[in-house]
Amino acid sequence: MALAMPMKDTFYISHGSPTLSIDESLPARHFLQSWQNDVFPQKPKSILLVSGHWDTSYPSLNIVQRNDTIYDFYGFPDSMYKLKYPAPGAPELAIRAKELLVASGFKRVDEDRKRGLDHGAWVPLMLMYPEADIPVCQLSVQSKRDGDYHYNLGKALAPLRDEGVLIMGSGAATHNLRALGRNSGSAGGVVPWALEFDTWLKDSLLQGRYQDVNHFQEKAPYAKMAHPWPDHFYPLHVAMGAAGETAKAKLIHHSWDLGSLSYASYQFTSAN
User: How would you classify the pairing of strands 165-171 and 9-14?
Assistant: First the structure.
């Protein structure tokens, strides 16, 4: 059996609104559709995806043969509930990830043998890998823990990169649903607090200040406005940790929607 090509890169994708699945006007949709041609031509053996929409008390991995499509959104157009992304599960990857986490001191790691992919996983993957032929395993966040915890979660999983696994976080660079569409600074503009947080994040990542990002609640302007609850931010920390402290960050997409929802997405390239 041929050895899998090692993955030098991890990614954090801002998946924004569920309408990303059907709305052709969103630049982030076209960015994700260009993934294989323009962003990351290397085909992974399997994908470990951390989504802000699966939040548990302990790290959990889904262990299934085929992933069901979970419609964890309400009041959207009917066509969105007919979309399917029947990617194979990755049970071997799940068991390997659990081994790595336990060996790194995460004493309890749960297995979920029924759960499929939530929209934080299948919506971006449907655009990036529409063939749905790459096995996918999903890992949960623990939103009651902190940035350091999730960074260390990623660090523990780093060996998977050498085994051909693409490690990807899916969330939103800013995620305050109550503020969407309100008080834009100008017509079609971005509210100042969102712009300031988003710019701080970009500068911190591109300058390699990962510890500042781990402690964003204390370091970032408007951290609580940008992330009233951190579930959509912690997938970033996992991607950072999995790439390593000397990794180089690159902003690979940036757009806004509804005045305060940032679609900023980042690539982390490992130095070794």
Answer: parallel
